[in-house]
Amino acid sequence: MGRPPCCDKEGIKKGPWTPEEDIILVSYIQEHGPGNWRSVPINTGLMRCSKSCRLRWTNYLRPGIKRGNFTAHEEGIIVHLQSLLGNRWAAIASYLPQRTDNDIKNYWNTHLKKKLAAAANSTSSSNRHPIFADATFPSAAGGSYTVSSNSDVTQMAAIARRSPFADCPSSSYASSMDNISKLLDGFMKTNSPSPPPPPLQHYDSGYYDDVKPAVDVGGNPLLSSFDCMSGADLDCCFDVHQQHQQQQPASFMEYGGYGGGYGDESKQQLMNQAAPPLSSIEKWLFDEAAAEQVADLMDLSDGCCSVPMMF
DNA sequence: AAACGATCCAACCGCACGAGC
DNA sequence: AGCTCGTGCGGTTGGATCGTT
């Protein structure tokens, strides 16, 4: 027997969320943490179904989400993971912790699918992946990389499996409060002189223990530990994290921010992990990732960088 | 400036799955 | 064993926005 739809009750509001609703939801989650979505509308008085609350949080309000244009690097990762995993957006999103599966799915459907189709038409004689037919990928070391063979694709799959973000799903929940800050800014403008909402406090990473690792088509875990990473990769992660901390917007601090981060000890611990040399593509992936993340002020989270301490 | 089509993306829908009773 | 509950996921929709004529 199927279960009844959760949203067919009378009085359940649908459509776009208002700033007021967002604030109620954020305040509640701040206090209780995400999860137990059934109780959220009951306890908050929101006229929304539990599923709607969960989606609003995971796709929009959740800290650490990066919005805006996808970088060429992100595009490349999505294209290759899509070719490997198919339309398993949640799994793909686990490698791009600042992007939601919904965002990736939308981006694929609106941009990449067309791009691939167009590229496929013009590069039918090439064995390169169509999306890379007219693209090169500069490396931090000064060279450039092209993805040109099936072995490269396989290699990139392996890279994805050992992504520095792969095992830190909570990173996507971590420090950036941009979304909520903007939300609150707008709310304050239209509702002044109402008192400001209570400061947001640190989210315990334990709130996110239910995040599942990605698995391949055979159900095997794709996400592995850091034991294949080099010290340089870790430095990338640390450096990005440190820069991010320094460049945290005022609103983040005003609302309390989210704690966490590396200590020297944990860093050293990670540095001691075994690390084989990186291939050229791996270097491109990681170096470029770090460079772009710093340059674009990607909201790399404290949570991401604190996750390795769990190992 | 207005009309129209294209594009974007937040949100919804329905299904699947595991846990608990 | 069968049911409900809670949640995750992928596909789809429709309103808002943008671009072009």
UniProtKB/TrEMBL annotation:
Presence of the UniProt keyword Phosphoprotein in the record: no
GO cellular component terms attached to this protein's record: nucleus
Subcellular location: Nucleus
Molecular function in Gene Ontology: DNA binding
InterPro entries to which the protein is assigned, alphabetical: Homeodomain-like_sf, Myb_dom, Myb_TF_plants, SANT/Myb
Gene3D superfamilies linked to this entry: Homeodomain-like
All residue ranges annotated as the Myb-like domain in the record: 9-61, 62-112
Keyword terms of this UniProt record: DNA-binding, Nucleus, Repeat, Transcription, Transcription regulation
HTH myb-type domain span: 9-65, 66-116
GO biological process: response to auxin
Entries under PANTHER family matching the protein: MYB FAMILY TRANSCRIPTION FACTOR, MYB-LIKE DNA-BINDING DOMAIN CONTAINING PROTEIN, EXPRESSED
Protein name: Uncharacterized protein
